[in-house]
């Protein structure tokens, strides 16, 4: 009996661990997170109200209020009601090409379609590269990062879709990859590393397409909404977002598992917190750029890039961890992890469901452990390829 059990475990270990990871503990913690929200429609987490207000102001012809923090605060109260908590609008003008249609439908219907369509886009972007597609997509829907994103009506699914598609299409469809990466510029902090990865991999068509896409989006938004929107974004909204990122406290800090925010939670002076983030960003960038030049699975290199993109950004929140969760599923599809690699996958998969104490902001360290696990696999693949030649 023991021999039969050992044989069964060896043959099915990956599937068993996969189901435990993505269809076991994760949904339970996701449910706990969702039940912690006081008001399931209009709670302090309901960031979708910001998108809805942006769309409303666009159709009213009051788009400049989006990029004036004081005016947007008043507009948010007027559109969403006096009890709605203040949340900023941190996005550049061309984000309105995506957000513009949202207020054309009733609020709850618009919210539901937003989440369904962006999740569908993310699943479609990953589908061909996943090993156990239905199970993994279901797990991604039920995982803590998705729960956080859905609870806030946020854009984590959209970011993961654009980044995942952009990276995975590089092998065969560079033009499409460049378009996806260009559209990801609606969240500029997620694109800091990508030009260097495209250059390192020799993906010049994607590089040129991405640059052209960003240029066209900027010009079209200036023509459509007025050049003043960009002036306000650069002189008012942008500096205000920097102020928020550096000095806001409370739940915002706990929901930002970056090295910069870890430094702030540990009460480091601002220059030291930035030094910590810059050091981590450089190390992650070097590792990802090196990986992109190695003879390894492209899906694995894409997963490394997705984790690195998160580590490089000083401003990323728990709903953005949908990107990291997607990277874990790509890694699962490339190799059979060892037990300690499973452990790393598990803690990072569950990370969005936890609020860590202020004196123990280990979120970025856990994500860095995942990055090193994936980097080690690239090294093993490179050594195997070298030995074969």
Report a brief summary of the structure.
This protein has one domain (13-388). It is 71% helix and 0% strand.
Describe the 3D structure:
The protein is mainly alpha-helical. The chain has one domain. Helices cover about 70% and strands about 0% of the residues. The chain has 19 helices and no strands. It has helices at about 1-35, 50-60, 70-80, 95-100, 105-125, 135-140, 145-150, 155-170, 175-185, 195-200, 205-225, 225-245, 250-255, 260-265, 270-290, 300-310, 320-335, 340-350, 365-389. Helix 2 crosses helix 3 and helix 8 (about 155-170) crosses helix 16. The longest helix has about 35 residues, at about 1-35. The mean pLDDT is about 85.
Low-confidence region ranges: none
Rg calculated over all Cα atoms? 21 Å
Order of helices and strands: HHHHHHHHHHHHHHHHHHH
- Strand coverage percent: under 5%
Distance between the termini: 43 Å
What's the number of extended β-strand segments? Answer: 0
- From the helix content, strand content and strand pairing, which structural class follows? mainly alpha
Query: Any idea what the shape is?
Result: globular
Percent of residues in helices comes to: over 70%
Largest sheet: none
Average pLDDT value? 87
Work out the count of structural domains: 1
Work out the helix count: 19
């Amino acid at each position: 009996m023991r021999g039969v059990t050992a044989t069964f475990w060896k043959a099915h270990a990956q599937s068993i661990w996969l189901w435990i990871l993505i269809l076991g503990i994760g949904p339970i913690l996701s449910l706990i997170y969702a039940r912690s929200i006081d008001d399931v429609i209009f709670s302090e987490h309901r960031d979708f109200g910001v998108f809805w207000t942006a769309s409303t102001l666009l159709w009213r012809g009051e788009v400049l209020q989006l990029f004036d923090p004081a005016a947007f605060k008043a507009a948010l109260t007027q559109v969403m009601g006096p009890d709605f908590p203040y949340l900023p609008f941190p996005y550049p003008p061309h984000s309105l090409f995506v957000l513009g249609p949202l207020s054309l439908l009733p609020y709850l219907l618009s919210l539901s379609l937003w989440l369904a369509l962006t999740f569908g886009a993310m699943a479609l972007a990953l589908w061909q590269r996943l090993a156990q597609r239905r199970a993994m997509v279901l797990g991604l829907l039920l995982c803590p990062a998705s729960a956080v994103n859905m609870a806030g009506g946020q854009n984590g699914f959209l970011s993961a879709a654009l980044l995942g598609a952009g990276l995975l299409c590089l092998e065969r469809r560079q033009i499409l990859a460049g378009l996806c990466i260009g559209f990801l510029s609606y969240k500029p902090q997620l694109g800091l590393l990508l030009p260097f990865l495209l250059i390192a991999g020799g993906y010049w068509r994607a590089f040129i397409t991405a640059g052209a896409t960003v240029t066209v989006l900027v010009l079209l938004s200036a023509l459509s909404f007025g050049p003043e929107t960009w002036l306000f974004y650069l002189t008012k909204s942008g500096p205000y977002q920097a102020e928020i990122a550096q000095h806001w406290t409370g739940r915002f800090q706990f929901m930002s598992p970056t090295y910069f925010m870890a430094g702030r939670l540990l009460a480091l002076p601002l220059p030291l917190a930035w030094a910590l983030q810059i050091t981590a960003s450089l190390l992650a960038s070097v590792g990802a750029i090196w990986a992109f030049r190695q003879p390894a699975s492209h899906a694995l290199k894409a997963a490394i890039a997705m984790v690195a993109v998160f580590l490089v950004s000083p401003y990323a929140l728990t709903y953005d961890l949908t990107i990291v969760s997607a990277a874990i599923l790509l890694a699962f599809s490339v190799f059979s992890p060892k037990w300690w690699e499973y452990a790393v996958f598990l803690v990072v998969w569950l990370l969005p469901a936890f609020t860590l104490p202020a004196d123990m902001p280990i979120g970025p360290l856990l994500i860095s452990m995942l990055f090193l696990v994936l980097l080690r696999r690239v090294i093993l693949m490179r050594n195997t390829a070298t030995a074969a030649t």
